[in-house]
Specification:
By secondary structure, this protein is mainly α. It has helices at about 1-20, 30-35, 40-75, 80-130, 155-165; strands at about 25-30, 135. Helix 2 packs across helix 3 (about 40-75) and helix 4 (about 80-130) crosses helix 5 (about 155-165). The radius of gyration is 29 Å and the shape is elongated.
């Protein structure tokens, strides 16, 4: 009995010491926080604002024209040919509105990808410098339900990024 108990204790000790020797240093970074609060993220946002404002103005102008055309198309006073012309104009304006939106989205995505590459490189550098084995990113939408304060390194990474990327 004593031998069995001693054997279990010895095996348990070996398993625990073996698993402890492979302990990893893990960190978590909230990328949305980094993108919104870092100096470089704010710079990219300020560069996109005028483009967004221009796209919004163009879209609003088109929507006013679309509303006017829609009212005209609902009128029974127009001839068939005129209605066809108005309908074609309406479709073209819808397409133009979509193109403006897509152009802005494409520019925004390109800027975000460039920013994420820069930030990702600095986070990797931070991880190597601080001997992290794994750095996770995400939020509640990505399946992360809880992040303990010990592994949440977002603010430290933010400070590091602000020093590295000015």
């Amino acid at each position: 009995m004593k031998k069995t108990l001693l054997s279990f204790l010895l095996i348990g000790f070996l398993v625990l010491s073996y698993s402890y020797s492979f302990a990893q240093k893990i960190g978590y970074v909230d990328l949305n926080y980094i993108l919104n609060k870092s100096k470089i993220g704010q710079k990219y946002t300020s560069q996109l604002k005028p483009k967004l404002k221009k796209a919004e103005q163009q879209i609003r102008s088109i929507e006013v024209k679309l509303k006017k055309l829609n009212n005209e198309l609902n009128s029974s006073l127009l001839s068939k040919e005129v209605k066809q012309q108005k309908f074609t104009e309406y479709r073209n304006l819808l397409q133009k509105r979509q193109e403006i939106f897509m152009k802005f989205q494409k520019e925004k995505m390109k800027a975000e990808q460039t920013l994420l590459k820069k930030i990702g490189g600095v986070i990797k550098e931070y991880a190597e410098k601080n001997k992290f084995d794994l750095i996770l990113t995400g939020n509640f939408q990505n399946g992360v339900l809880f992040i303990g304060d010990k592994i949440n390194i977002t603010k430290d990474v933010l400070n590091y990024i602000n020093k590295k990327l000015k």
